[in-house]
């Protein structure tokens, strides 16, 4: 079998290979005479206006011509045919990953006569069934972006939503932006990011390695449904970024964007607990840099150099319920001992309030969160010959930041600090063999080296907690459920990873008759070096248990976990765009992907095998790695005018597994000893000692693991309204199969009784590793997930014309799944189908509008050069999943309560504590009249997953810009951006752990922290100098 695979790979690359994704574009058209008859043999000359690059082609027997693999930019087109006058299009804009249509009508004329027309980019997408959207350079540069991260513009695409609070990859990282996004019913870890056609995914979690500076971004395209067969590796969106190149003129710019808390409105939750200054938390942000570009040799070689830096000083407000003064005093007599009693000293003293006879204490504090980032990039474009072009790009980023509230930490002094180096390099070569055959070759890599270290150090044993760790890793991650208190840790730190992905790809474009054919493939090589340690996790369900040192659950690992993981993958495809009639085009494609199984360099993979009950060393945890992906679609010009186009398509897209599928296997015995305990009343002084005897908690990967895939389909109608405006109405649907999800395969057998029997009480005596060791929870990476997504959408887009560009979309959608892979486990691991419900990122309504308007003022310098730009978003709330603190059955907090009464949701009046009530419901531990949620001691609740609905989101951002001409080619640009212009309060989700005390149902924070979208109004001032 291996011989067959490698034979396939060699054949793929020495015959014809193909690219995973394209960062170029295509110009095509039909040449006709005045009567509409096609003209074969017409000479078509295409010239790049910025670089002088030329491409010549000839119309075929059907009058069609196609010029693939062109760099995005502006082109002129000249068409000549014997007996006809010359036809010229002086300017046509080609966008990334699109086909620009340039139909030509020649007139019989005397020699030397020329017909010239102005051509705007065709608003109708009439060449492909792929559903997506180009975000052009004007939008990238002018739309106000909170943080200046290009991924925020993905919300302009139909089906993309503002992510939920519990998104791990979609939550904005301060100074760096989000690592992914949610779109068209796909999970956040299924997107494929490309720069100039080269992979930019960190395969550890399949997130973007880093966001290239928007200063170097020419434009990008998001594709989120029924890709062409040339795209693969992921079932979510394809994001193709095209970088800026130099031109025949020298250009330069320098800029500085400034933000300060004195410009900003105070965060809503600072009103009840203001800082001593009475103002917003500290936020001083300078985002500065510059670029220089031009020719090395005119019409031959061009360069573009860029630098961007960020210096940010920020105070992060952390607010939490803490023990009252009376409860703090009780620690002195805690049965857990004098050492444990000192743990109360790491918690701040809260401000007490009494409501209805209940006293609570709330502590607030500001924790520093500095960010420092430097990013350099260089781009070189060279016309080797008239038939060969070479494009080189390299970017390097160094960043360091502190995250005080990592893993939901609510107390100042914890969290982590981290430093990273990130790189990407790409080399692209385009060779024109003939007007009908063009080849694109790519080679490149992306790399990340990052380390994470906890802010709080010391020995847990100094605080009376036995976590088995003898290194100064600080406290375990400690949660007190009824208080909503979270401190210590972070769990799993320190850790680091050093990841490299290399890519080679090549695409052959071939025109034959009515067929435009692409054929090829790609090869990728991944290497990940990882290490981690942990102080563990400890959960207390009540404040009383916290005082007495009686934990509900404990997880830990006394050993350092290291791994060196490798993977190779290859893909091949064939795509045919067949123009069956002048009005009907069929798209037929097939893609084969071989995703090699991960291996570990030192043979450290140890899997728990349920069939034998053994811990077994394995080189390949699973064997399935073949994926077959057909793609079909049609494009129909309904009236034959090119103004009304109907498109539809279907495709199967497979996911390449990320490293998380197998990474846990390197941490199993004998490499280390992960343990877990559950059941309550666990004395903190003997946690690890007891767990080491009765709670070995190995990781596992299902030996029948299957690559996840998505069946995607869409149908839409486009209507050209004139004036560069197009209206689209459509439907998107998808169904996910074999989706990755975690399952505890050692859940207690009789959860509705009092039994503590597990399916695997011990490792088999026949096991060569840890025979007869007592077992606790066993977390297995399974492929049991499934999903369903359906959406109706409408968009209206006006291309830039007359100084005005508009874009708007509305999506009505519903997304369902078993698990959204965002931190929530299933309630009953034996019956995961019982968790089928709304996806964590489900949003029923989403609206977005963006606009750019060059104000029509003329006259002197004071009147000219004004520009307005805005983006407006509004959407409904994400689902809320109410759970109990009971973990005795599953070992995780995923058990839901029993619904026995009525409830409602909605923003209530501000409480004396400063919190906002949102879930209007009562909680009881015994069934009583008027109770809403019954938190049963044993068994599972009947409340559906994600049953409730959270707060919605709305935001208005506005930018005002003034460009003043200082000299003939020198300009000064002054700009002010207002984020959340209306200062609308976007609330985070409430506390969702049902409890009779504490803050259940209450909201304690805005959707994102200060400095990011969804916190409060923020102003940004900037200046840019250009020449």
Automatic annotation (TrEMBL):
SUPFAM superfamilies: Porins (SSF56935), Starch-binding domain-like (SSF49452). One of its GO terms (cellular component) is cell outer membrane. It is found in: Cell outer membrane. It comes from the Bacteria. One of its GO terms (molecular function) is carbohydrate binding. Keywords: Carboxypeptidase, Cell outer membrane, Hydrolase, Membrane, Protease, Signal. Residues 1-21 form the signal peptide. The keyword Membrane applies. Pfam families: CarboxypepD_reg, OMP_b-brl_4. Residues 242-1020 form the TonB-dependent transporter Oar-like beta-barrel domain. This is Carboxypeptidase regulatory-like domain-containing protein.
């Amino acid at each position: 079998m291996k011989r067959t695979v490698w034979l396939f790979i060699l054949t793929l690359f020495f015959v014809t290979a193909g690219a995973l994704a394209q960062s170029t574009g295509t110009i095509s058209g039909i040449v006709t005479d005045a009567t509409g008859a096609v003209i074969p043999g017409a000479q078509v000359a295409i010239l790049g206006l910025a670089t002088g690059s030329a491409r010549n082609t000839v119309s075929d027997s059907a009058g069609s011509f196609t010029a693939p693999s062109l760099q995005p930019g502006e082109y002129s087109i000249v068409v000549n045919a014997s007996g006809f006058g010359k036809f010229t299009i002086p300017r046509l804009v080609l966008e990334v990953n699109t086909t620009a249509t340039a139909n030509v009508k020649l007139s019989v004329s005397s020699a030397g006569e020329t017909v010239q027309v102005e051509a705007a980019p065709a608003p109708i997408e009439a060449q492909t069934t792929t559903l997506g959207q180009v975000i052009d350079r004007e939008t990238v540069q002018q739309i106000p972006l909170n943080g200046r991260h290009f991924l925020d513009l993905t919300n302009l695409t139909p089906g993309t939503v503002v992510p939920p609070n519990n998104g791990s990859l979609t939550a904005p990282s301060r100074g760096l932006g989000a690592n992914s996004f949610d779109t068209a019913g796909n999970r956040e870890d299924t997107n494929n990011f490309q720069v100039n056609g080269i992979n930019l995914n960190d395969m550890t979690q399949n997130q973007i390695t880093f966001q290239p500076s928007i200063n170097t971004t020419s434009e990008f395209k998001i594709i989120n449904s029924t890709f062409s067969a040339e795209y693969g590796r992921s079932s979510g969106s394809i994001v193709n970024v095209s970088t800026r190149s130099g031109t025949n003129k020298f250009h330069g710019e320098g800029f500085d964007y400034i933000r300060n808390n004195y410009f900003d409105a105070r965060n809503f939750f600072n009103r009840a607990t203001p800082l001593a200054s009475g103002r917003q938390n500290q936020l001083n942000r300078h985002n500065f840099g510059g670029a220089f570009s031009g020719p090395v040799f005119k019409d031959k070689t061009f360069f573009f150099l860029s630098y961007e830096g960020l210096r940010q000083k920020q105070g992060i407000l952390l607010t939490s319920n803490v023990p009252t003064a009376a409860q703090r005093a009780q620690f002195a007599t805690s049965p857990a001992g004098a050492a444990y009693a000192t743990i109360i000293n790491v918690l701040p003293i809260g401000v007490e309030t009494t409501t209805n006879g209940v006293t609570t204490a709330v502590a607030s504090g500001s924790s520093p969160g500095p960010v420092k980032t430097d990013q350099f990039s260089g781009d070189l474009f060279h016309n080797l010959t008239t038939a060969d072009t070479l494009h080189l790009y390299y970017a390097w980023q160094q960043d360091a930041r502190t995250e005080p509230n990592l893993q939901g930490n609510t107390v100042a002094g914890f969290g982590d600090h981290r430093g990273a180096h990130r790189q990407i390099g790409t080399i692209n070569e385009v060779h024109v063999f003939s007007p009908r055959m063009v080849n694109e070759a790519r080679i490149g890599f992306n790399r990340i080296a990052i380390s994470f270290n906890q802010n709080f150090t010391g020995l847990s044993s100094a605080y009376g907690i036995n976590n088995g760790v003898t290194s100064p890793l600080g406290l375990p991650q400690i949660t007190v459920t009824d208080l909503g208190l979270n401190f210590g840790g972070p769990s799993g730190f320190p850790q680091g990873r050093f990841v490299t992905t290399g890519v080679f790809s090549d695409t052959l474009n071939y025109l034959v008759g009515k067929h435009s054919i692409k054929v090829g493939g790609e090869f990728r090589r991944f290497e990940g070096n990882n290490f981690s340690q942990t102080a563990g996790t400890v959960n207390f369900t009540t404040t009383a248990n916290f005082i007495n040192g009686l934990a509900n659950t404990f997880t830990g690992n006394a050993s350092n976990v290291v791994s060196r993981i490798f993977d190779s993958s290859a893909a091949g495809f064939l795509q045919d765009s067949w123009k069956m009639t002048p009005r009907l085009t069929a798209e037929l494609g097939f893609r084969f992907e071989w995703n090699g199984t991960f291996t570990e360099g030192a043979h450290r993979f140890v899997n728990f095998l349920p069939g034998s009950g053994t811990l077994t060393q394995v080189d390949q945890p699973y064997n399935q790695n073949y994926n077959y992906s057909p793609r079909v679609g049609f494009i129909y010009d309904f009236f034959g005018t090119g103004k009304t186009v109907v498109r539809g398509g279907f495709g199967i897209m497979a996911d390449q597994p990320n490293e998380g599928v197998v990474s846990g296997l390197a941490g199993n015995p004998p490499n280390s000893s992960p343990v877990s305990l559950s059941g309550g009343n666990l004395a903190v002084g003997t946690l690890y000692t007891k767990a080491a005897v009765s709670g070995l908690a190995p990781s596992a990967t299902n030996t029948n693991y299957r690559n996840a895939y998505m069946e995607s389909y869409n149908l839409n109608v486009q209507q050209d309204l004139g004036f560069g405006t197009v209206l689209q109405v459509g439907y998107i649907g998808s169904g996910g199969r074999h989706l990755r999800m975690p399952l505890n395969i050692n859940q207690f057998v009789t959860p509705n009784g009092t039994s503590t029997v597990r399916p695997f009480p011990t490792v088999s005596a026949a096991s060569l590793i840890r025979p007869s060791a007592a077992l606790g929870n066993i977390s297995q990476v399974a492929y049991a997930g499934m999903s369903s997504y359906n959406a109706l959408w409408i968009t209206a887009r006006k291309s830039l014309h007359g100084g005005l560009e508009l874009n708007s979309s509305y999506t009505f959608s519903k997304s369902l799944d078993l698990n959204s892979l965002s931190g929530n486990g299933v309630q009953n691991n034996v019956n995961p189908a019982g968790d089928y419900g709304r996806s964590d990122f489900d949003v029923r309504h989403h609206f977005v509008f963006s606009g750019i308007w060059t104000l029509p003022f003329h006259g002197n310098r004071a009147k000219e050069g004004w520009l307005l730009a805005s983006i407006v978003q509004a959407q409904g709330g994400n689902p809320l999943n109410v759970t109990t603190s009971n973990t005795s059955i599953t070992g995780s907090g995923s058990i839901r309560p029993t619904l026995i009464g009525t409830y409602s949701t909605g923003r209530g009046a501000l409480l004396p504590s400063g919190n906002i009530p949102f879930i209007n419901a009562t909680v009881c531990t015994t069934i009583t009249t008027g109770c809403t949620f019954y938190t049963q001691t044993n068994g599972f609740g009947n409340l559906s997953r994600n049953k409730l609905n959270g707060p919605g989101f709305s935001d208005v951002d506005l930018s005002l810009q003034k460009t003043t001409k200082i000299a003939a080619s020198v300009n000064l640009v002054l700009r002010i951006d207002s984020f959340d212009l209306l200062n609308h309060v976007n609330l985070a989700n409430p506390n969702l752990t049902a409890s009779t005390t504490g803050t259940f149902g209450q909201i304690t924070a805005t959707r994102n922290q200060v400095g990011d979208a969804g916190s409060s109004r923020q102003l940004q001032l900037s200046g840019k100098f250009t020449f």
